[in-house]
Amino acid sequence: MMMLSRARLKFFACTLAAALAWSPLVLAADGSGFLGAVEDMPLMDGLAETGDGGIVFDKPTGRIVRSVAEGDVAPSAVRAFYIETLPQLGWTRAEEIELIGELLLFRRDGERLDIQIVPVSQTHTEVRFSIEPE
Predict the structure, then answer these.
(1) How far apart are CA 113 and CA 123, in angstroms?
(2) Mapping DSSP to helix (H, G, I), strand (E, B) and coil, where does residue 121 land?
(3) Could you write out the DSSP letters of every residue in 23-51?
(4) Predicted pLDDT at 14
(5) Please, what sign has the CA dihedral across residues 26, 30, 31, 35?
(6) Which residues are registered as beta bridge partners of 107?
(7) How far is CA 75 from CA 8, 15, 80, 84, 117, in A?
């Protein structure tokens, strides 16, 4: 069995710690870090999916996904998280629309992602994810 020297072990530990500290993708409240219905859609820390993890329809023209998460996080923090994180996953930010709450729009590979951020109370926010073909 190979033994690691203290210097190598320390280097490995420091490298791992730096990588984890740098990564904007933090784990979700359930520990998964991603929506159940979309394997590469990060779920912000403090949010948890409601229901059974969303709905997915695969059609010849593309997929349709609906999922909802909620938690005790500020709407501004949710907005900042997705604006910072999604471009790293290939999503391009599009226009914003003011509805009930706020709607962030992104596009990637012929799909449109809508993220509606709805304040439920002063301390609780609901986030509605919708992906469909353009």
Answers:
(1) 25
(2) coil
(3) -S-PPPTTS--B-SS-TT-B--TT-EE-T
(4) 42
(5) negative
(6) 92, 112
(7) 43, 33, 9, 14, 6
The span from the CA of 16 to the CA of 14, in Å, is: 5
Residue-by-residue DSSP string for 59-71: ETTEEEEEEEEEE
Supply 118's token pair: 């709805």
- CA angle (76 as vertex; 73, 77 as ends), nearest 5: 50
Closest by alpha carbon to 115, among 123, 106, 75, 124?
106
Give the residue ranges of the chain where pLDDT is below 50: 1-2, 4, 7-9, 11-31
Q: Contact at 8 Å (CB) between 115 and 128?
A: yes
Predicted structure pTM score: 0.72
